[in-house]
Amino acid sequence: MASKRSIFRLSSQLLAESQTAIRPQPRQCSRAVNINAIRHFSATRQRRLMDLSGFTEEQLTVRDAIQKICAQFPNEYWQQHDQSETDPKELHAALAADGWLGIALPEEFGGAGLGISEATMMLQTISQSGAGMAGAQSIHANVYATQPLAKFGNKEQLESTIPDIISGKTRVCFGVTEPNTGLDTLRLKTSATRQGDKYVITGQKIWITCAQVASKMILLARTTPLEEVTKPSEGLSMFCIDIDKSNPALELKKIKKMGGRAVDANEVFFDHYEVPANTLIGTEGQGFKIILHGMNAERCLLAGEALGLGYAAIEKAAKYAKERVVFGRPIGKNQAIAHPLADAYMNLEAAKLSAYNAARLYDRSTKDKSISQHAVGVACNSAKYLAAEAAFRACERAVMTHGGMGYAAEYDVERYLRECLVPRIAPVSREMILNFVSEKVLDLPRSY
């Protein structure tokens, strides 16, 4: 397993051995994977495209190692999994095999003990490799949803769950959003009622990513009715529960969606679903405070994933603009092509600075009490907003640069455009981020 103390010692081994790590089986691709094509599918050009000045040695080591792993999964792999809507389990297994699923989890349980800064770099690198949001989202919850568990879980919970998550034996999903409350988290209706040594869960969750392949769910549910609490933020509790698909009290319904089709999204129904009382994380009624610990981390990770998608799109577009000849000249000579791409690139670079500043603040705030959680929240929300908007601009312009071929699945940019809407919407919409900044930074009246 990679660890904070040994990451540099292991990185050279990871780089050398990654070519022999788990590869996708030919039967799961539309055609057999060409090894020469895989080796060509390095991120060398991507590295030149995105300026790497100012990153730490840890971040660059993570980037190099993850690039090597992702090079085993060419664009054809992601095209096929997008079209067939099948889980990219081989990527998950390859990252687990080298210990990367525990990048931000404690060393004492087999994690790397690194920070959200390094985890953001990992998820950006996965997305930028051509895997896009689908590849990043296949491990997304394993990174951020486990942060509240690692901080507030008891020793027994940590020992029984964290090592299996890191090894890849256990996959995790995050159950918060509900169809009738949306972003109004404080009014969640899914209930968890204590009955002796168990809780009985009833309610519905929606947009739960990877529930079909997960065996654990980090769940936020109401343990005290809203009308009985003093503050709306009270009465919610967090649980780490098993997903027993054979139990008739639990039902999963897959949602057909526009993009990120390689990872499943679901409606989850609980009908008196019983879980042991020891699945409670932390103190009953303090779930909202606990979940906030993971929310800012998730915004950083989403920002990284959006950046990766944007850089991948711009790289594709720039390459096409140099090679596509119309009226006897490469279309990249036309300022109508070149200027929008240059503008999109600069927006990505600006969003990159915001994203990694937010991740740095998040990491430092755990030890430096002079960094307020308000500052962290503003930085993380701003970073997610800016990265999502920059990615959308980059992906839209990549499609337009390709012209008619931008509409073809073969060129990948249409897949990127479908996926780039995710960070604009989830886990919090851009409009709600604007509301947050208006109220918390500009001191304007609350609008909702």
Give a short overview.
The chain has 448 residues and is of the alpha+beta class.
Structure description:
The protein has 3 domains: 7-167, Acyl-CoA dehydrogenase/oxidase, N-terminal domain (Butyryl-Coa Dehydrogenase, subunit A, domain 1, Orthogonal Bundle), CATH 1.10.540; 172-286, Beta Barrel (Butyryl-CoA Dehydrogenase, subunit A, domain 2), CATH 2.40.110; 288-440, Up-down Bundle (Butyryl-CoA Dehydrogenase, subunit A, domain 3), CATH 1.20.140.10. The protein is globular, with a radius of gyration of 22 Å. The strands form 3 sheets. Strands 1-4-5-8 form a 4-stranded mixed sheet. A 4-stranded antiparallel sheet has the order 2-3-7-6, with helices on one face. The chain has 15 helices and 10 strands. The longest helix has 37 residues, at 287-323. 50% of the residues lie in helices and 13% in strands. It has helices spanning 7-17, 35-40, 44-49, 57-70, 75-84, 89-97, 116-144, 146-152, 155-167, 287-323, 335-365, 373-402, 413-419, 422-425, 430-440, and strands at residues 172-175, 191-195, 198-209, 216-222, 236-242, 250-254, 265-276, 280-281, 325-326, 329-330. By secondary structure, the protein is of the alpha+beta class.
Top keywords for this entry?
3 domains, Butyryl-CoA Dehydrogenase, subunit A, domain 2, single chain, acyl-CoA dehydrogenase activity, FAD, 448 residues, Butyryl-CoA Dehydrogenase, subunit A, domain 3
